[in-house]
Amino acid sequence: MCLAVPGRITRISDDNDPLLRKGRVDFSGIVKEISLAYVPEAQIGDYVIVHAGFALSLLGPGEAEASLQAFHELAEFQDKQ
Amino acid sequence: MADFEPNCPLPLQYDRIVMAHGGGGRLMQQLLDTLVRPVFRNPVLDQNHDSAVVEINGTRLAFTTDSYVVKPLFFPGGDIGKLAVCGTLNDLAMSGAKPLYLTCSLIIEEGLPAADLQRILESMQQAASEAGVLIVTGDTKTVDRGKGDGLYINTAGIGLIGEQVNVNPSAIRPGDSIIVNSDLARHGIAVMLEREGMNFEHRIESDCADLSGLVQELLQNGIEIHCLRDLTRGGLASALIELASASRYEFELGESALPVREDVRAACDILGFDPLYIANEGCFALFVPESQTEAALSVLRRHPLGAQSLAIGRVKSACSQGRVVLQTPIGVGRVLDLFSGEQLPRIC
Amino acid sequence: MSLQKAFRDPAAAKRLSAAIAAITTRPWNIMEVCGGQTHSIIKYGIDQLLPEGVNLIHGPGCPVCVTPLEYIDKALAIAALPNVILCSFGDMLRVPGSRQDLLGLKAEGADVRIVYSPTDALEIARKHPNQEVVFFGVGFETTAPTIGLAAYQAKQSQLNNFSLLACHVRVPPVIEALLDSPDNRVQGFLGAGHVCTIMGCGEYVPLAERYRVPIVITGFEPVDVLHGLYACIKQLEEGRFEVENAYRRVVREHGNPAAQQLLRQVFEVVDRNWRGLGTIKHGGLALNDDYRDFNAERRFSVDAIATQEPVACRSGDVLKGLLKPSECSEFGVRCTPEKPLGATMVSSEGACAAYYRYRRLQHG
Question: Does B4 touch chain C (CB under 8 A)?
């Protein structure tokens, strides 16, 4: 369960209460105001994973690339065997 | 274990009509098959096509009617008026007919701003004159406030079918190419994103358009059209499943080849929709013999409504009930099934 | 975005499935806990890329499936009251209660609305100050913070015409219950990536150690699922049983501290009945005492509704992988997707509905 998709923060509107912090998130051309209550560290330009109108986590592009690289090495390893 | 379509969850049998009965999925088929068709049964109705083909004094006419309910009345790329004209023109065109005349019935909710009604009527007139058809008769009713969503429109239409033309599910043959003229799912997503409570900003416009000119281009260029189907409610998947079961063939599609715009795909990902099941209003599936694929594509691509035309699949061998097999992006075949009703935004 | 595409890449999927085939020496039963993963497996046909004998058991991770019948009945009872607007996620509207579903009730005139986010329901409450707006919130630890924040905001702004029918469930206790069952057949788990995004990986470490099962936190794109399966089978083949994070681009070791804090502020851990599985100790979250004024069960006095599930349904055994759906005597007879007896036939992510459709398409 728990459908969640990545999008990029394009604007942030701060509030005195950090739980009311919001941002505009761009999902490949679809833009929606999303709650940033749970990603207090998020900055404009960051990618976040969004579920039911809330950003739940910052997406780590470094980690994603590392995973993809690992799959590649895995294949080379298999090929050699 | 992969030959089914997740659609969470499945419904009860209802003793009252629910919204999903109009959603283009399994419940609508059930409603038609168990309630509507048995009452009216006759050979013309049993053609089971977008419009009925009737013969009068040796002349074949396509005849169709459709009612339009859409929230909101104005949406990016169109409004209910343009939709009511184009939709009925398209139903006629799917029989290979050249549309001639339309009717227009308005059911207006008390309180609708007259300026809105005027804008909608002008939009109808514009779409009709662009298609070269006349709106020749109609009717107006009003209902109490709260008993309608502003405005419902019904249009009916007739068109003329040329002598050599036989566009029909029964003309589908093994080896036929399946072509679409445009990218998928734009209308349904454009309207959904405008609904109250959605609050999305986007640049997705409905693909709402009259396809009859494009169909006439194909016929005039000698393309042998076996079948045409408007990909409206229920989208590409529902239309093809219906045709596969009517013709009793297996159709094969490649999921990676299906044209869906990036932003439309993103909207589908957010809402948990499958673009294959989302409505279009300016998109058809065209069946032509394999040898005519390139010729058909080149005719289509010369027309603004066909610039993005693509072959997306083909008709394979006969198969007892007919089915549509989708090759997923990772190279596995999956049988497509009808949804129960309209897709609802989901969290899981 | 391009990263998302990279995790749907057919070449990467082929590489991973070849790697899985190369390391698999015997049959394994692996449960994907999350309905989202089941969805991906079925949508892309991932199970068909696996070697013979690797058996995927579809777990209880579809909140729509496991929400107990009594909560559907409570939602129906509230929605039927005059002057109430009941909001929920789209997927809850077709779940059958004892007599009907919310869509059916809407057809009879009830004001039932689909929202994308619980905070959209707050907006509806602000716009309709003279009506009672109730959000029917279901879901796992992923969704609970979104509903928790709606409760928090309602309390902060004293939005007194808003309340919540909250029926949240927690994943670790149900994994424990499955593993505790004497006839458990599950040898490894794909953990629910988005649940762990909130809660982190720590809760699973004692489970992996105590029951000697690998638990691999897994994402949802086809390449993610294959990556999770590869890591899980590798552990099984090597005799290891660790908690491993195969969804590092999203899941952090300790999860999301801000969301965890809000969960503690708004909810308390309770025992909860799961449709098909019975009462799971500590298996749910309920609004705590500070938020009792926003609890729709109290406000509309529906806490007494206690519906029993049909006894004939053996979906619990199906969820544990003990019974094939087609082996159940009610399957396809008294229990079909249109008239489901229990959880696994309610949702077509459920194993029974999957078997039902598959069989129909095969022989139809």
Answer: yes
